[in-house]
Amino acid sequence: MASFVANTQIHGYSVGKGPGRGSKRKGTGKLGTCLFILSAILCSPPFSHPSFAQSKKAAELYKKAVDAVAQRQMPEALELFHQAVERDTGYTEAYLKLGQVYEFMRQPEQAFQVYLRAIRQQPDKPGTGLAYQFVSAYQLKKGNYQAAIPHIQQFQKLFPPNSLQWKKVDRLLQTARFGAQAVINPLAVKPQPLSATVQAFPSQYFPVLTADEQTLVYTVLKPEGDEDLMVATQKGETWGPPESISPHINTPNNEGTPSLSADGRTLVFTACQGRTGYGSCDLYISRKTGTTWSEPQNLGPSVNTRGWESQPALSADGRRLYFVSDRKGGVGRRDIWCSELGDDGEWRAPYNLKSINTPFDEASPFIHANGLSLFFASEGHMGLGGYDLFVADSTASGWSNPQNLGYPINTADDQAALFVSANGAHAYYSQEQSSGDGKQRSKLYMFDLPEPLRQKVRPVSYLKGLVADARTKKPLNATIELIDLATNQLVTRVQSDPQTGQYTAVLPTGGEYALYVVGPGYLFKSLSFDFTQKREGEGLTLSVPLEPIKPADGSAPAKETLNNIFFETGRYDLAEKSRTELDRLVKFLDVNQTVNIEVSGHTDNQGGTANNLELSKKRAQSVVAYLTKAGIAPTRIKSAGYGETRPVAPNTTDENRKLNRRIEWRIL
C-alpha cells in the first residue's frame, strides 16, 4: 500500500504555496542533492585506497571524464567513463564514478548495476563503501529486504564496531531484518477506492470523518494548484458530490490537513499564508452552527509559534489537540505535541509526547475516537524504511511502546495520515499513483482493519440525535456529558447545535456509563449504558426531549426518571455508583433554588403488593436522605412510594419489569 501521500506537510515547506503537499527538507531539494553528488564525483570518495587503472588509455579516459564532470557535461562524462571500464574491466574507481554520474542524472537502476559491479570486484576494500551505501539504500527503498542484508552486513565491516557510522549502518541492518520478517507475515488488507464521486480532483488526501462515518472532509489539489478543504456526505451506499466546506475557510490561498471532532462541528486545519499568524504554518479553528462555519480563528501563541505547526488531530470531544511542531524543547526536529482546552475556552501550553517522539521526525498524528489509541507516522521507530505508521495506547502509566502497523499497511515507501473509524472496523487513507503524464496523483481509499489490529483498538459507540423541548419540539442548545459510573469521572462533554438541536457523543465500550443532557430551564435527562460485556462499537440514534421546569402552557408539572440509581434486588440501600446521579440532582436543586420536588419509588409486580409498596417507599426515602445530607432543605423534598401501581410498561418481560423498577422525580 504505497505512499499515503506521505510527504504531505511532513517536510514543511510546500510545493507551490500551500500547506497540503510538503516539499523536500530545507537545503535538500533537487538542486542541493545534485550539487552534493557533483562534489562527490569531483573529489575522492569518502573511503580511502581506490583502485588504479591497469590500462594507460583507461586512465586517460577516466581523467577526461572527470574534467567533463567539472564542466557539467554529464552525457560526455558518462560516455567517457563507459569507455574507461571497457578498456579496463577491473577499473573499480571508474565504476564508482560512473555510478555517481548515474545518480546525478537520476538513473538509479543504472547506478545500482554499476555499483554492484564495483562490489563484486572489491568486496572487502574500504573504497567500495560508496557502492555499498547506495546499493543498500536502493534495495531497502525497493523493499528487497532479504537481498539488502548481506550488502549492509559487508558495509558495516568497513567501520570500527560501535563507531557512529557503524551504528548508522546497524540501523539499516535492523530495518532490513524487520522488513524481511514483516513481508513474510503480511496482514489481510484489501484497499478499496472510495466512490468516483469524491475523486473529482487531480489529487485528494488527508481524509477525516465524523464518528458515524456519514461526513467526509479532505484536502484536494485543484488543477490551478490551489488546495482547499472539501466535504462530502454519505447518501445511501455511496458518497454525494463534494462541496467546498465553507467560503469562510477556503480562500485563494491554500488550506489543508483537516481534523474533525466526532460530531463534525469543530474543525482544525493548517494554513501557511494569507492569514494573520505567528510562524511559517499555523493552526486555525472553526466551529459549525447549523450549516454555517465560523470565521477561522488562530489557535493563539500557546499552540502556534514562530516555527512550524501543522497536521492537527482533534480528540472526539474537541478538547484535546495533537499536532506536529518544530518548536524548541522537542526530542527531535519535528515532534508530536499535545494541548488541552481549558474550562475557560483557552488552549493550554502544549506538552511534548516524549515517550512517542524520537530524534528523527514524527508526523501526522491521529487520535482515535476512544481517546486512547494514537496513530502516527515516524522515521525513528523501527519500520520498513522511511515513514511508517505506528499505534501507541494511553495507559495509567503513560504511552505504551509504539507498535508498527505491519505490512502491507507499511511498505518501503513513506506512509502517513491514516484515519480509523470509531468502531475500529475501517481505515481511510490516501495513496499516490503515477499517471500517464508522469505526474503523481492521489486518491482516497478504505480498507477493513485486519483482526490483529482491531484487537489493539478499543472500539467506541456513538450516540446521536436531537435535543428538543418536550412540549414545543423546539431545538435546544444543551450540554451532553458522559460519566464513568465506576469512577464518577467525566469521559466526554459535547454541546448540541443551538439551531438544529443535533448532537453526537462518543460512548466507550467496556464499562457502565451515565449520560446527562442538561439545558437551562429544563429538567436534566439521565440515560444509562452498560457496555461491560460489549466490545463492538455500534451507533445509536436517540432523540432527547427535555421537560421544561415551568411549562409555558401551564400544563402538568414535568417529571423525569433517574436512570442511574441502583439497588440490590429487594433492598433499599443505595449502591455506590448511584452517587453520580444523586450529585446531579443535588446540583440541579442548588441551581434552581425555588424548585421543590417529589421523589417517588416504583416497582414491578414481582414479590407481593404489600412488600413492593414498602420497598418503593424506603427506596424513595433513601434518595431523599442523600439529598438532605448533601445540604438540600428537607422542606423542598417530598418522598412517596407507589409500589407496582404505576407501571410504565406491561410486566410481561424482564426488560419491561426493569423499566417499571425506577425512581422518578417531579416538580411540585
TrEMBL record:
CDD domains: OmpA_C-like, Sialidase_non-viral. Pfam families: OmpA, PD40, TPR_19. The keyword Acetylation does not apply. Residues 554-668 form the OmpA-like domain. The keyword Cytoplasm does not apply. Keywords: Cell outer membrane, Membrane, TPR repeat. TPR repeats lie at residues 92-125. It is found in: Cell outer membrane. This is OmpA family protein. It comes from Larkinella insperata.
